[in-house]
Every structure is written in C-alpha cells, then in structure tokens.
Design goal:
6 helices; DBL_dom_sf; 83% helix; guanyl-nucleotide exchange factor activity; PKHG5/7; 117 residues; 0% strand; elongated
C-alpha cells in the first residue's frame, strides 16, 4: 500500500534529483578547479576525506552518489520481484519498477538535452 504509493510518486519525490544530475558535471569541474588552485580547499577536502563518516570515499565519489543511487532502485526492485510469488504483490513491484525506470529515463533525457544531443 504505502510502499507502492510512494513509488507512484517517485517522480515528484525525486524531482530535486533532476537538477542535481543536471548540475553534477559543473560541480565536478568546479571542485577540480578548487582542488587544483586553492590550497586551503585542498587541505580541507583532504582532511574531511579521512573522516570515518566519509567511508574512504573521495569528494568526487560522494558527489556522484545521488545519481548512482537512482539507478539502483530498479535493480533492487527487480531482485525483490524475482523473490515475490504472490500475483498482486508482483504486479505492485512491476509498477514500482516502471515508475523508477520512467523517472531515470526522464533524468537521462534532460541530461542529453542539456548536452545538446
């Protein structure tokens, strides 16, 4: 019930991801410039990346995480589907997969449009 309703609203719940993904490359470029040109920023990032909460990830890895997370939802749901026997539950999971995949296609289309192709 609630789980399915949440996935039916996937597009509106994850709307901020569209802008994030569109801005991701610009953020990466900005970060690379700061790491190259700003000693204080470079020192801070080096210090922060050693913090246990960063789980040994680089700043660039952390910036890419939200985009990568999006692509994992359909994979997770397909795994759930393979282990689901009840027909109505299967139908609900298929609906969730479709909702997540449509949103990912929308994000990818926006990114292609922004890149001019």
């Amino acid at each position: 019930g609630d789980f399915l309703r949440g996935f039916k609203m996937f597009g509106s719940l994850f709307k901020p991801y569209v802008r994030y993904c569109l801005e991701e490359e610009g953020c990466m470029e900005y970060m690379r410039g700061l790491l190259r040109d700003n000693d204080l920023f470079r020192a801070y990032v080096t210090w922060a990346e050693k913090h246990p909460q960063c789980q040994r990830l680089k700043l660039s890895d952390m910036l890419a995480k939200p985009h990568q997370r999006l692509t994992k939802y359909p994979l997770l749901l397909k795994s759930v589907l393979r282990r689901t026997d009840e027909p109505r539950a299967k139908e609900a999971v298929v609906t969730m997969i479709d909702s997540a995949e449509r949103f990912i296609h929308h994000v990818n289309a926006c990114m292609r449009q922004r890149q001019g192709g």
